[in-house]
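3.2 Worked example (two chains)
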Amino acid sequence: MTKNLSEIIGKRIKIQREEIGLSQKALAEEVDISPAAINQFEKGEKKPSSEVLARIAGKLGVSTDYLLGASDDKVSLTGNVAAAFRDFKELTTKDRQIILSHIEFLKSKTKEKKQ
């Protein structure tokens, strides 16, 4: 059965919120809405406005496309991530290699946890 948009948004908000360790109440406070609204979004009972969706995505560190189900890529190339990429370009080749080594290490740790 195909899920409707409200269910997709709700499921993805809940998964990401739990992944980063935020309660519904904490997320609600951060994006200036009620905890009941977060609960309704997560249950697929209600869709957030585009403005609220953007604030939720920003707080959860994902793109609105991810929350809408238009992309499975969680990473939002805005804010801190975009700044990190800009900074990365300014580093020396040696420093870039160090960062890439750290990324590979973290990826292997994540892969081990999933097994």
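3.2.1 Second chain
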Amino acid sequence: MLTPREQGDVGEMSAMCWLASRGATVAIPVGSSRNWDLLAELDVRVVRVQVKTSTCSVKDRWDVTLCTRGGNQSWNGLVKRLDSSRFDYLFVLVGDGRRWFIPAAQVAAGWHLRLGGPKYAEFEVERGDPIPGRTRTATPPLQSASDRRGDARAAKGTRL
């Protein structure tokens, strides 16, 4: 299982690869930027890109958290909502590798988005690599006891 920081790094790498495949020159900030994760020169225009990831799916949709709840031990309890005036595009990578590149003006929420339905379908781009690790679902599929244990014959090396 990836840490949140590692998952974010996977998302940023996916965004950089996708943007580069579109002919963009990509730059990342020195240190951490609170409002955007990378810059891209697209068609002689420099744009600020905020990157988000999600491994949480609910009924074939992906819940993407847009607000920040700290992330360190000195958190003061305030929740910071995503401010669409501080970035130009939102790039989202979800657990199965689906990706979206959404103009900031189209981001209708400050707390979270639900992707995979018709609302943001026009902004979905080519699928990338899935996020390594487990994808969480709101209602995990039921598993029989034998599925959880595995097959003893396979573990002992005998033919199935």
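3.3 Remarks
Confidence is low (pLDDT under 50) at residues 140-160.
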